[in-house]
Amino acid sequence: MKSLVLALLALLGLSQLAVAQIDTTGGRYRRPLFSQVTVTRGIVYGSAADVTGTTQTLRLDLYQPQGDTVRRRPVIVFAHEGAFLTGNRDDQFMTAICTRMAELGYVTASIDYRKGFFPFDSTNIGRAAIRAAQDMRAAIRFFRLDAATAKQYRIHPSYIFAGGSSAGAFMALQVGYLDKATEVPAYINLSTLGTLEGSSGNPGYSSQVAAVINMAGAVGSPTWLEPGNVPLVSVHGTADAVVPYTVGRAFGQSTSPRIFGSGSIKPRADAVGIPNTLRTLRGAPHVPYNGTGATSVAYFDTTFQTVRDFLRPLLRQPGTVLASSKSTSLSAASIFPVPAQQTINLTAPAGVPFKPVWLALVDAKGRTVRRILWEHPHLTIPRGNLPSGLYYLSGDGLPGRRLMLQ
């Protein structure tokens, strides 16, 4: 019945009446409105058997803006670096990024996850990454469980983001884009680890995220990214000798798996229509933002600002069907051809000041199938693998417009 109602609303052209779920007015999520952050350490979010078979209790540190009265807030689940061997949830960078984002109004969490593997080869590194990503998925489910029951942390379940640095970014990328067992290399033998979701805790709740924050991470294959996947923001140094900026092997070791860094991920994201931003740090090494020296602090500020500016527009849109505002500055935009086959072209009206805006492509059942960043007055949207049928395109200043794909 819900799908039918959404479809009828769309057919009536009323999708623009939806209202955004997160209030970003007053500078919230852009300016540090909160001078103090409350940190609650050691919250248990799950447990699972580690590489030795010993049950490990999984914990997180939670950062909340002190004195905040907002009833439902976005949360970012972060994971630290350490090559799946070392590191901890309160390292210098995790503490800094969690604190800075909480000062803006986010709730942030830095998680423990299972580490350890031996020997150093493709199979064991891959298996360690799967275990760690299973733990991150459990942490995301933990917040959805709380949102549906105790509401202790006042989290909006539609606005859960996954992020990480280095190994932690591998995890976030898996959570966002590795969603089929068939995409896992056979040599990893996923069945011995369970499923992609794992069994680290909080079953029965979704581990889907609203966007991915990738800082110096990589994927096993760019084909993990598919049309309709969630938005992505990446930060990566071109001189990274640990996780390649484009294509290579971790640490440059021949025994490690071939991986695809942010410089290879972006072309794939562009090709399949995933909203994404890549902040390329020219000549920078691995995780240059992690440190207390002047250069590291400058890189940290760049990283923080990139993440902040990418996420904030997403908060002004509902987690499923994106809304348009009451502004009609783009209402006269041209959309062609009608019907469309391989591409959809969108041109802003002449004489109207143009500003970048997020768009949503929604199918007749009310499901968001693609999120698109309209950055320039003319936009070409590739069809990708979208099936034939009726769709609706909307965004800030662009009331719902009907499209037909043949």
Number of DSSP E strands: 18
Provide the β-strand percentage band.
25-35%
Which class of secondary structure composition applies to the elements? Answer: alpha/beta
Low-confidence stretches: 1-20, 319-328
| Fraction in helix | 10-25%
Largest sheet: 8 strands, mixed
Give the count of helical stretches. Answer: 6
What does this structure look like?
The protein has about 400 residues and is of the alpha/beta class. The protein has helices at about 1-10, 90-105, 120-150, 165-175, 260-270, 295-315; strands at about 35-50, 55-65, 75-80, 105-110, 155-165, 210-215, 220, 230-235, 245-250, 260, 275-280, 335, 345, 355-365, 370-375, 380, 390-395, 400-405. The strands form 4 sheets. An 8-stranded mixed beta sheet has the order 1-2-4-3-5-6-8-11, with helices on both faces. The protein has a 4-stranded antiparallel beta sheet with strand order 15-14-17-18, with helices on one face. Strands 7-10-9 form a 3-stranded antiparallel beta sheet. The chain is globular. It starts with a helix and ends with a strand. The model is unreliable at about 1-20 and about 320-330 (pLDDT under 50).
